[in-house]
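Bumping with the actual sequence this time:
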Amino acid sequence: MPELPEVETIRRGLQPVLEGASIIRVEARRPDLRFPFPERFSERLTGRTITALGRRAKYLIMYVEGGPVLICHLGMSGSFRIETPDGSEIPGVFHHERSKSVTHDHVVFDVMSAGGARSRVIFNDPRRFGFMLFSEGTSDTHPMLAGLGVEPTGNALDGALLASLLKGRRSPLKAALLDQRLIAGLGNIYVSEALWRAGLSPLREAGTMAKAGKKAKEQSEHLAEAIRSVIADAIAAGGSSLRDYVHTDGSLGYFQHSFAVYDREGEPCSKPGCGGHIERIVQSGRSTFFCRTCQV
């Protein structure tokens, strides 16, 4: 599933085309994705101007003037692409082939920029685990977003806040960090990477990060910094290309070339002076990659 950096990269790719554009036509080519489309889906968006394109955790949020807020989730295999009026795609560097079958093009937005340029933004989703829903109030009031935790992209996530979120939790540290009610948008890849950067084991009890004393405080600060930095680095690199994830222009992200632990089972740990090797274990049905030597 695309994680926060991938969704943010897609938002930035769509933003120049969608923000300020008028929606000329919306075509939903099936009645549902993971959930049914909202009632009068196309009708309520057609003719509206898109005022902003935002992101909350792993959700894309489209704000339209005088209309409902559109909340989009990519699911496992969803992606957007931008086409010019002649049907040609914006060129990109392909590393793996992505789905181009029109049978998986489920939603098409025809838009016109303030300058009169026409474009098509197409949502393609072979597995149909993505969805598009309306929020009649603000985006934060929608049930999908109302309970989300702090974003890991700004200074709000510091050691003190992280310790307060983890206090009293007996679950493994990795499982706690994946809890979207605590920190919104973190996923399997970047939690593994952040824990390696912080030198913390994914197996340790989460509540140990909130213990009294200098050591726990320093560990919480290091982990908060590692989370913020790994997300920032991944966004700067354009996300990670795993399986179905692609940019809006068809090219793939390259943060996977910087992975320290993820999908590197059996390889030497790259931390200077460590000497350990990367292991793979399964936690809550998900693969966890870490170095038992330097992550304690």
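The tokens above came from a reply further down the thread. The longest strand covers residues 105-112.
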